[in-house]
Amino acid sequence: MDAAQRELHDRIDDATQRLLGDARVMADSDLRAASLLPGWTRAHVLAHLARGADAMRNLLVGARSGQVRPAYASAEARQADIDQGATMTAKDLTADLADSAMALRTVARQLPDEAWQVQLRILDSVPFPAAQILTRRLVELELHHCDLGAGYGPADWPAAFAAMELAEPMRSQRQDRLGYAPSAAAKGDRPPAPWRPGQRLPGSWIGRP
Question: Can you give the pTM of this predicted structure?
Answer without folding.
Answer: 0.85
